[in-house]
Design goal:
By secondary structure, the protein is mainly beta. Helix content is about 10%, strand content about 30%. The protein has 1 helix and 12 strands, in the order H-E-E-E-E-E-E-E-E-E-E-E-E. The strands form 3 sheets. Strands 1, 2, 3, 4 and 5 form a 5-stranded antiparallel beta sheet that branches. Strands 6, 7, 8, 9 and 10 form a 5-stranded antiparallel beta sheet that branches. It has a two-stranded antiparallel ribbon with strand order 11-12. A hairpin with a 4-residue loop joins strand 8 (about 120-125) and strand 9.
Length: about 200
């Protein structure tokens, strides 16, 4: 009975806090400055000598470590930049793709990453002139180093993949999904036969 009353009191307190935070915006006082101003873009990678980059993703751990996987350089190399201090400064790059790898980096083909409970995973597409390969790599050191990339798709002939996505389940299983161009397309009928 004591435990039940305690839980009710905790839930009531949480509900009160939630409702207090849901006031109409017109009744809220002006926000207090936290010292962070985001009204202008802040060059992050130029300070590290990276002149060209694209397809950046952003992630943050509870510890305050900020992750920034980016495709950079003239050869479209995929690398990982980290900030140990909530984005004030960045370290890197930790290279993931091969130096001569032509990483596909646009729109739906941008590299992705997912955080597990003890591991970090990245997913990207690489072009070889005949098609694309979907690759993934794992880090057991929270982005300080990565295992050798693994090709996700086994192909008998060149094809293209697209719209790749990666996720980590609570039990640690990793799931990758993508649109696959390996299967031949069925012929499109000119017209439907009436029955």
């Amino acid at each position: 009975m004591k435990t039940r009353r305690y839980l009710q009191a905790v839930l009531f307190g949480l509900a009160a806090l939630f409702l207090a935070g849901c006031k109409h915006p017109a009744t809220h006082p002006e926000p207090v400055s936290t010292g962070y101003v985001f009204d202008q873009p802040t060059p992050v990678l130029q300070k590290l000598g990276i002149a060209r980059s694209t397809s950046a993703r952003l992630g943050m751990r509870v510890s305050g470590q900020v992750y920034l996987p980016v495709v950079y350089g003239k050869q479209n190399r995929f690398g990982f930049f980290m900030s140990p201090n909530e984005g004030d400064t960045f370290m890197g790059p930790v290279p993931i793709s091969a130096p001569d790898g032509n990483v596909v980096a646009h729109g739906e083909a941008s590299p992705m990453f997912a955080l597990g409970t003890t591991q970090l995973y990245v997913l990207w597409q690489q072009e070889d002139g005949h098609g694309t390969h979907l690759l993934t790599a794992r880090s057991l050191t929270w982005g300080h180093s990565f295992d050798k990339p693994v090709n996700v798709v086994t192909k008998n002939k060149p094809s293209f993949n697209g719209y790749g996505s990666i996720g980590v389940a609570p039990d640690g299983d990793v799931y990758v999904v993508w649109l696959d161009g390996r299967d031949p397309q069925p012929p499109v009928p000119d017209s439907l036969d009436p029955m």
